[in-house]
């Protein structure tokens, strides 16, 4: 018998459509009515940590969730399932991946259709997440995201479609397992990862997307002592329009860490081009190239590294290394 703790945080999985078809959170979480179909094999304990749409989730709330899961590790629990809104699910899942010791299986899930919509995917995703969390193979795989019968590593998964139930994808690398009729199957293991057991979180780590003809304005606006870090979603393999360079240099001169990913959906950022604003120059300036993560994940990684009090060198290594 496995003991699984289910922590609800809100999102569409905990919402219902009203008479006019608008999807709204209610005073009651419909998931509280869920009756387990696992019999004596899996003992479920359920807790409503929050009941929030996921655009209301903040790093402070991610930390509160991490601290609740830390406690669960001492409560004789075999695994944890977190239900969460899908809009920021990948950020919370990756935050947990970076900050929790890799001891308990932790699986994050959500839904694209609310509880009373036809074809609602909430209960199915909840059940497959519970199945995954109770699988002996789920341990040591980092935090997992289970949606639509696929198992993804929290490190790389991203929401790719506004409404489709097959929205969660892992560009470049693919899912690491699936939930099939006869159970959970993994076909990849996790590469090494660093755990940052932080106690507080820093704010003011910003994410800025590059575009053709971009000027210095957005970078100038955040060149403040209160800024703790910046992630740039750069062009292509990792290049920036020349007009942004003085403002990026100013941030670096202020000892504000600047990390860079590509705004491309697939592939990794690298210092390939040696023209003005190309990756070679950006790297020489001290911009940290972050491999394999998208912008929102790189922001979480930078935020966790800064919150852990890393030195500039440690932070650069932590953010630049794909498998830390
Ligand atoms: N499908 C969802 O859960 C989307 C919702 N807006 C949320 O993230 O809370």
TrEMBL record:
Recorded hits in PROSITE patterns, A to Z, give:
ASN_GLN_ASE_1, ASN_GLN_ASE_2, ASN_GLN_ASE_3
Report which reactions are catalysed by this protein: L-asparagine + H2O = L-aspartate + NH4(+)
Where does the record place the Asparaginase/glutaminase C-terminal domain? Answer: 204-317
Q: Which residues bind substrate?
A: 54, 86-87
**Residues forming the catalytic site:** 12 (o-isoaspartyl threonine intermediate), 12, 86
| Domain annotation L-asparaginase N-terminal: ranges | 3-188
Which UniProt keywords are given for this protein, alphabetically ordered? Answer: Hydrolase
The UniProt record lists the keyword Hydrolase: yes
Q: What Pfam families would the database entry show?
A: Asparaginase, Asparaginase_C
Biological process annotations from GO = asparagine metabolic process
EC annotation? 3.5.1.1
Instruction: Fetch the SUPFAM superfamilies from UniProt.
Output: Glutaminase/Asparaginase
Molecular function, one GO term: asparaginase activity
Q: Which PANTHER family match?
A: 60 KDA LYSOPHOSPHOLIPASE, L-ASPARAGINASE
Family as reported in the entry's similarity comment: Belongs to the asparaginase 1 family.
* Name of the molecule in the record: asparaginase
Q: Which organism is it from?
A: Lactiplantibacillus xiangfangensis
Ranked from the top, the taxonomy reads: Bacteria, Bacillati, Bacillota, Bacilli, Lactobacillales
């Amino acid at each position: 018998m496995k003991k699984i703790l289910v922590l609800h945080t809100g999102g569409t999985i905990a919402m219902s459509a009203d008479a006019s078809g608008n999807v709204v959170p209610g005073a009651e979480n419909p998931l509280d009515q869920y009756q387990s179909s696992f019999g004596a094999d899996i003992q479920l304990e359920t807790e409503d940590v929050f009941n929030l749409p996921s655009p209301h989730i903040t790093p402070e709330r991610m930390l509160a969730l991490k601290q609740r899961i830390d406690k669960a590790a001492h409560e004789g629990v075999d695994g944890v399932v977190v239900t969460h809104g899908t809009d920021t699910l990948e950020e919370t899942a990756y935050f947990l991946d970076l900050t929790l010791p890799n001891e308990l299986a932790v699986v994050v899930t959500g839904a694209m259709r609310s509880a009373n919509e036809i074809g609602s995917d909430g209960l199915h995703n909840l059940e497959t997440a519970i199945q995954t969390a109770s699988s002996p193979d789920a341990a040591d795989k980092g935090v997992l995201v289970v949606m639509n019968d696929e198992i993804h590593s929290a490190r790389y998964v991203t929401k790719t479609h506004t409404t489709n139930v097959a929205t969660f994808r892992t560009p470049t690398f693919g899912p690491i397992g699936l939930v099939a009729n006869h159970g959970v199957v993994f076909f990849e293991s996790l590469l090494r990862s660093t755990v940052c057991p932080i106690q507080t979180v820093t704010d003011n780590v910003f994410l800025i997307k590059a575009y053709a003809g971009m000027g210095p304005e957005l970078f100038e606006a955040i060149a403040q002592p209160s800024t703790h870090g910046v992630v740039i979603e750069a062009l292509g393999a990792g290049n920036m329009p020349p007009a942004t360079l003085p403002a990026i240099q100013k941030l670096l001169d202020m000892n504000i860490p600047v990390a860079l990913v590509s705004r491309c959906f697939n592939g990794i950022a690298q210092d390939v081009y040696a023209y003005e604003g190309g990756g070679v120059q950006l790297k020489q300036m001290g911009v940290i190239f972050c491999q394999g993560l998208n912008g929102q994940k790189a922001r979480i990684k930078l935020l966790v590294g800064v919150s852990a009090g890393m030195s500039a060198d440690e932070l650069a290594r932590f953010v630049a290394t794909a498998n830390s």
